[in-house]
# Entry
Amino acid sequence: MKINSIKLSDLQYKKLLLLFAFVGLVLRIVFVVATPQIGSPEAMDSGTYHSIAVNLIEGRGYSEDGVNPSIFVAPFFPFFLAFLYKLFGVHPMLAEVVQCFFNVGIALLTFLIANRFFSSIVAFIAFVIVLFLPDLFVLPTFLYTETVFIFLFMLLIWTTLRAIDRPSFKRIFIAAFVCGLATLTRGVTMLFPVVFFLALLPKFGFLKSVRLAAVFALFFALSVLPWTVRNYVTFHAFVPIAVGTGDVFWTGNYLPFDGKYNYEKTMQLMDEMTEGLNQIERDKRLMQEAKKNIAAAPLQTAVLMGKKFFRFWLWVYEAGPTGQKRQSNFLVQFVLSVAYYPILLLFMIGVWITRERWRDLSLFYWLLSYYVALHVVMLVVPRYRIPILPIMSIFAAVALVWLFQLFVDKKGTILSAKRD
# Structure
């Protein structure tokens, strides 16, 4: 059964897409305005980004405390907040409303990417899933990097696919520049040029893939270079984006806590190990201590990484974020579980039934493999899985249409629909 043969071109579907996008946007804005207590700018990571943004617009530089320059968080999101605060005043809720537009943009990009490979109905279903999946729906309420990062992440996938389709300096530059912005938001895409190279191989072979990937890597390096230079001039150290890798690497491989972030206890131990050190020295010390821990117990660490692999795919939050140890909230856990686990199952089905198209879909495979492996080696929390939910939703939509064709639409009326 050829899923890619399902193509709908009716103008009503395009209108339906815009209607759903509008409804999704309105619902997000209503949710943001109605729940100001959820996304307090003083809470957890939000407080860091908010403080830096305020210090930027008040002339105190890129600093958390207004005195000492910071190198602990990637710069794009704090500058994004500072831009909004400069334009409209320091109104965090307004920034959350702006994030609602980016959040809906994630769903629209999901549609574009899915429609490139599959039918319009598959793309539309993926769009609806992303639009209303609770993990993604609530993101704009928090001043976290996720909303902007996932938008850039999906834009990176879209521009990369276009560059692979018809390689040119312009297309590769655009994709590499978007990759730079994404990495300046969250450093997780730092090694994306390797993924780009691996995705090129099935189509172009080794030598041409090396040349194209080298061009991508050059443009990518140039896009983050100004911030790297700032870090070197300010801190006299080579730090491409930010420090903090040591924190997550040590936390994710600390056996007594089973590789989990244990809130006050984790912070207390890290602070004791790094007392008196600056941010860069702290990061190096934590990296060294993590490596020592791994070398002292390699088998136990390997077992822990196996557990983290399953945590990555199966763990859902049991309550909303508070900055303290989460107390189980049955309603939150139930909603997240009921929404996520069917998507996970359908995603696995979708990957299986599209396996013969592995060459076309290789970018997804390599990107997912890289993303999962990175977090398994470092630290796993459910929040870190959210950026790949749109990709999972595309394969889940494929599975839904395939199951419908298999068990319901035996006459194949969808298959006979008009192509775009």
About this structure: The chain has two domains: 3-242+297-407, 243-294.
